[in-house]
Amino acid sequence: MLRKLTALTLGAGCLALACAAAATEAPKTAAELGLMQGSPPPADKRVDQGNFMQAPYNRWALQHMRELVPTRAVSRGQGAVSPLEGDNVELGDLEVALASGKRLSVSRWLQESYTDGFLVLRDGKLVYERYFNGQTADTHHQMFSATKSLTGAMLLMLADEGMVDLEKSVDFYLPELKGSAFADASVQQVLDMTVGIRYSEDYTDPDADIWKYGYVFGIGNKPRDYAGPLNIHDYLGTLQKRGQHGKAFHYVTPDTDVLGWVVRRQSGQNLSEFFAERIWSRLGAERDAFFWLDRSATEMAGGGLNLTLRDGGRLGQMILQRGRFNGEQVMPAAVAERLLDKGDPEPFNRLYRDPWYEQIGYAYHDQWWTFNNPHKAVSAIGVHGQFIYIDPVARVVIVKQSSHPQAESESNEVDGPQIMHAIAEQLMGRSG
């Protein structure tokens, strides 16, 4: 995710009138907007593959992905649901002083950031849970790039078993990528997104490479002048090198699809099967999850996971508990501890040279973000406002699912981490 604090703070990409409206009234729900109502819905209210990433259509789409794109289930298995016991704390009135100088309550922030679902766990207890825009506890929600962090975890689990050597080059495992940008990058460099690659992930640029990647997975109309492959495996081979690997963090979604390919190759399973067998079926999840697929039935490792809010909480809690959850060691403790590590800030802002990477972010490692707060909280993050946030010091897990009009917004990317830090501090102050 390309993050520019200056642009976000100035509200780039948001019309002044729309921004003013968002600050004074709750955003309209999908139902209030009349999306997908009627038989058939009016033309301007229909959500389809051509418009579902755009506002306001994403207000409906991000809770209905199985109706729009091909998917594959991640089975929860046959076990009992692991309980999430309640210990309710009213956090809505908590007011946070932000770095911008404004003060914002949690409830107001949830409104302004187009939240669909929001959940807070402290020491494994469910202390706060809210739903908006028609979402319920049973609703699957698109997680976008929060998926990357879980793909990274799967790869590290294979490395822990000796099935992947993180220092070997990608072409050792994927000879199909010889001649591409990834060929001589180490698996670890791909995990940390320090691959020297010619690639643009600027969501505001309609000609950016990210929209070609999106088209491979059925997003929108064919990009201008694009005549490339229509499946992810062939697409990855077209990406070319630019500069030295290992020097600077460069956020590139296809990096994660390379990792997903390595997981498939070394495990002999598709991502859905691997994730279900190793993690999902052992969590006591309430619902199956599912992955978005390309045209050749390959999962979008860089952004295709859909899950319910509470199951996202279980996933984050398992990692916080060093991989132990639901009465068993779901993830190797060494892998979970590595995900919770703060990482190396040295390469983080070399390329972007932007204040977000110094004031909000701290580092990126193994497909996880680290925030620049005293606790060095880590998070999986997805566009339009998706978070699985873990504070290992305060012992807090926060899951946020949203449908913001902007892929990257001040309310989610700038205000959001500050408010989540404040929630964690507040809860830690109540009970130590």
Q: What brief labels describe this structure?
A:
432 residues, alpha+beta, four-stranded antiparallel sheet, 15 strands, 31% helix
Notes on the protein architecture:
Its EC number is 3.-.-.-. It comes from Microbulbifer taiwanensis. The protein has 432 residues and is an alpha+beta fold. It is built from 15 helices and 15 strands. The strands form four sheets. Strands 5-4-15-14-13-12-11 form a seven-stranded antiparallel beta sheet, sandwiched between helices. A hairpin with a 5-residue loop joins β2 and β3. α5 runs parallel beside α10 and α5 crosses α13. The chain is globular, with a radius of gyration of 20 Å.
Secondary structure topology:
Blueprint: H1 5-9, H2 16-24, H3 58-61, E1 71-74, E2 95-97, E3 103-105, H4 106-112, E4 115-122, E5 125-131, E6 141-142, H5 146-160, H6 170-173, H7 187-191, H8 209-216, H9 232-236, H10 253-267, H11 271-278, E7 289-292, E8 305-307, H12 309-320, E9 324-325, E10 328-329, H13 333-340, H14 356-360, E11 361-365, E12 368-371, E13 378-382, E14 386-391, E15 396-402, H15 410-431
Helix pairs in contact: 5-10, 5-13
